[in-house]
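Request: Give me one sample?
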Amino acid sequence: MARYIGAIDQGTTSSRFILFDEAGEIVSVAQKEHEQICPRPGWVEHDAAEIWRNTQEVIARALEQASVEARDIAGVGITNQRETIVLWDSRTGEPLANAIVWQDTRVADDVRRFAEDGGQDRFRAKTGLPLATYFSALKLRWLLEHVDGARERAETGRALAGTMDAWIAWNLTGGPRGGLHVTDVTNGSRTQLMDLATLEWDDELLEAFAIPRAILPRIASSSEIYSPIPAPSPLAGVKLAGILGDQQAALVGQTCFEPGEAKNTYGTGCFLLMNTGSEPVPSTAGLVTTVAYRFGAERAAYALEGSIAVAGSVVQWLRDNLGLIERSRDVEALARSVDDNGDVYFVPAFSGLFAPHWDPTARGAIVGLTRYANRGHLARAALEATAYQAREVVEAMEQDAGVALKALRVDGGMVENELLMQFQADILGVPVTRAAIVETTALGAAYAAGLAVGYWQDPGALRRNWRAGARWTPRMPEAERARLYACWRKAVERSRNWA
């Protein structure tokens, strides 16, 4: 029997390949960052060809590090940055333009124009999503309208499009030599082109956004055998058997399989998902309704999600744009150099405000500055911003779901920051638990693939793998919690109606 499951984790800032064993422990990992391309204010792009090269490199390195061969691997899953869209030539495999990243705001004017007919929630009943720069449909429409020859190629069968999972899957399974054009229900649900009820591309939506159906991938389950991987890949013969958008993958990795169970992932952005069961729950509080996962032929599970555009990327901004720290991990020590935030509040609305505000006019703001404030206060305010934003989402989720959050499972790169996690517990007023295996996004993709190929028999086996790694309980007095949060809300208002 094959000993391992592999996961391709194609994220916003890097691509990784991780091998897991049956206990969900990491056997080997390789990672490589890719360039963040920002040609104009509000524009964020990736070179999809660079990402594919990096993906091939990290697969080879991870296998070599562990002396593992393809025959040792039972299956491979993909997890990915979700709303980022790429358009490519179906014959050459070359991208027709840089991929437009989920953080990109270039379609803000299109959002306003589309909202003039039916409002921001024009498509929410069918898709679970408001009109926003975040989702893929308007980005793909922009590519078809602005890239020379793109629409002509799309209409003559020379172009394909998809989110990053589809790009990786197509290349992994052969590319121009018969590659499989496939995505899963979780990624499909983030495009604003899929009907949540039918789990298929919707003709009305395709017409509204002027997207040819033929360029889009087949929508499949999150856990099924899609195709064996052909040579010359070092994974030749291994079955590609799982695809999940990154936040849904983290939900699966945290084994939140029961309605009411929730997780928060602290990565480039911050994403809180609550499993709502086999029926989609409409949001009235600024959240989105999304597909959580679908295993094989079973009914899909749905989730409520609160998406925060900027979390870990604010630390990168402190490092790269301001030079306040040399390495991202140095931010905690700098923040601990002061006793509190010095009454400084940082609203990192670099791409507008996502949930629960959905305000593309907002821009980043640092408020409360006095001569007393120093770089330590700025670092602390940047970290605290993530926790405040998470509280806004939790409050919206409690309103939509009608239940109070009792505890929060957390994962992602920022959960190693003890100061942030304690402040998160303090500002929420509930315990925060970090999983022992923090790479839950990649683990979720591995779980999906492993279920499809029989490496794990059922979700119960995955539940038995989960264990807590650390736990933080609230220590802040209620009056201080209320005061800080009220000041944060004032700062948010200062950031709005800027652009």
Observations:
- The CA atoms of residues 170 and 179 lie 5 Å apart.
- The first helix runs from residue 48 to 66.
- The mean pLDDT is 94.
